[in-house]
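Table S7 (text form). Paired inputs.
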Amino acid sequence: MRGDIALFLGLVAVIGGGIVVAVIFLLGGNGGGNNACDNALPPLGRSDISQAGFQAEDAGLAKVIQAASAGNLPAAEDAFFGDVHGFTHNVDPPLRPIDEEMARDLCESVIHIEEELAIDRRVDVIASDAARIRALLRDAAEALGYARPGD
């Protein structure tokens, strides 16, 4: 009987702890309701934030979309992680003062594809996320005064 009670209390503690961790994660870690995208994504290396840079990342995201659409997860990962990934982080700071809503949307989309590539690994979702990021980067190019890539 005591063993059953101890087991029950242990399960309650584990489940309760999991709920607390989930709430903290969803609230941005400080309980204040802040979102991870309230601030710019941290920089990753260096990126060429220019017309040529936007064109290169547009082509890179096309490779991610193509690979994921073909069900080739390793190729999608290879195409995303590197210059494309760095660019998605590095374009956030110059974009944010011009269009904060777009920068937030880009940030959330980047975090989602990062999680998808690392955890769930669903190629259809990765292709969709990459297409969303590509569209946002096309809009960002225009917002920053460059010609829209891909057009």
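Next pair, protein 2 of 2.
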Amino acid sequence: MAAALIAMAALQLPNWLQQRKMVSESPPVVQTAEPEQTPEPQVTAAPTVQPAVTPEPRDFTALLERNPEVIGWIKIDDTDVDLPVMQREGDNSYYLKHDLDGNWDDLGLPYLDYECDIQQSRHLILYGHNMGVGDTVRFSSLQNYREPEYYQEHPVIELDSLNGGQYYKIVAVYAITTRESDGDVFHFNQYVNFADDAAEQEYLDEVAKRAFYTTGDYARADERLLTLCTCTYEMSDARLLIMARPLRDGETLTADEVTVNPDPLLPARWPAGA
């Protein structure tokens, strides 16, 4: 009996060895991990910058029928500056003393320097009368811009032309002398255009030195400029100038931060403390 069992085991041994060999020769089973899913990159949309707002188009038909020398309209909200803008070829004095119909008028009307092209010039220069302290007609109220508080209430100039309008943000207020004998005349009105951006930057630097204050991001050398010029009575032959630049994309019509100049470059005759 024992011999029979041993014989049976001997017969089964080769089968077992063969099965073990087959198992040992079988390639190992490799557990393949599922590839990790790479998350889609999150794309953050760039903030939308709203284009600069522009005034509603103005109809100049009736004004042009009265006077073809009307080239635009200027307005500063909540002031008496709400007037037609004139321009007479080769003449920077006519509209100092004439009205819309060509009649003599001591008040005159705001007018664009005859060397300026309201569509093309890099620097637009407008003149108007200051009729005295406390007055508000024509450009008289501009004298109030000596005080930053007034700017904060009236920070924007609207200038319309026959081809559309634009808002300008006031960025500097300064004073000059027109008396050549003073020797320190700043000929701001000789800069109707600039040779290049570097030339405009030099001009902007000169204005900043003279400014009673500047505002916001000031002006850039590739921007158009608008200057309003009127008399000021701290001394004879003096002018007050309000410089502005176009409203930029994304900006609002509200006032910007004011930076007061503690030591503006003023004419030598400027009264101390004025």
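The chain has one domain: 67-260.
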